[in-house]
Amino acid sequence: MKVKSAPAHLRADGADVGAAGEFEAIVSVFGNVDSWGDVVRHGAFSESIAAWKASPNTLPVLWSHRMDDPTYNIGEVLDIREIGPGSSDLPDWVDPAVRKGGGLWVHGRLDTGDDASPVARQALRLMKARRVTQFSYAYDELDSGWGKVDGKEVWELRKLKLYEVSPTQIGANELTELLAAKAMRLKADETLGQENTDRIRQASDLLSEVLASLAADESDEAEESDESGASSGGKSDHPFRSAVRRAIALRQISD
């Protein structure tokens, strides 16, 4: 199971979280390349949404993905749907990036009754005060692979299994990841020392070489397969290669 975060794009007209704890948010933007080099494609959630709607179960709203404690199960999703690029169904309060790519729209409700957990009540206060403005969701990749956006290679998320959505204090979105990485870079010499910082960068360079070597091996294998008349099949992402790719992405952010 993985998580992905983004600015929540909550309504900004003062009515984003009502007295009954209801809220609207765009929790994923389609066609937008994030700092990991991932892009969620329109249609990625469609099967999972249909499965949830056909089920007697409720898609939960958790606080920051906390699944280990029932008090962090703070609400429920009342409605959820994908909205395509430029659709008139997009709320008028979304920003241009969302309007361009479309996104995953959620109508949810936080627990507000006397039996609501202290976490739910605090989450409601924070969201009403716009002290929490980011959402995240937990998912599994069911169909994904390499693709291109504006000529750059990206990892496309084509079909996802959705488990929950979470308001979160600090999400792993493009802006917060970048700022955190930049702050770490500024403090690297002070905290780690120049020698250790250089070693980390050297390790990152070595990972780049390993990834290039893996890609070359794949190319050789594909050529041998073609020559023998066997089908090479689709390109897959080996777990080790995926880990290397993400490590390099972190290095690129810090640079």
As residue ranges, the low-confidence spans are 172-189, 230-237
Q: Oligomerization state of this entry?
A: single chain
- Number of helical regions: 6
Mean pLDDT, to the nearest integer, reads 75
What Rg do the Cα atoms give? 21 Å
Overall form = globular
Strand arrangement in the largest pleated sheet = 1-7-8-3
Number of domains: 2
Q: What separation lies between the terminal Cα atoms? A: 29 Å
Q: By helix and strand content, what is the structural category?
A: alpha+beta
The biggest sheet, with number of strands, parallel, antiparallel or mixed sense and barrel status, is: 4 strands, mixed
Helix content: 25-40%
The topology string of helices and strands comes to: EEEHEEHEHEEHHH
- Tell me how many strands there are: 8
Beta-strand content: 25-35%
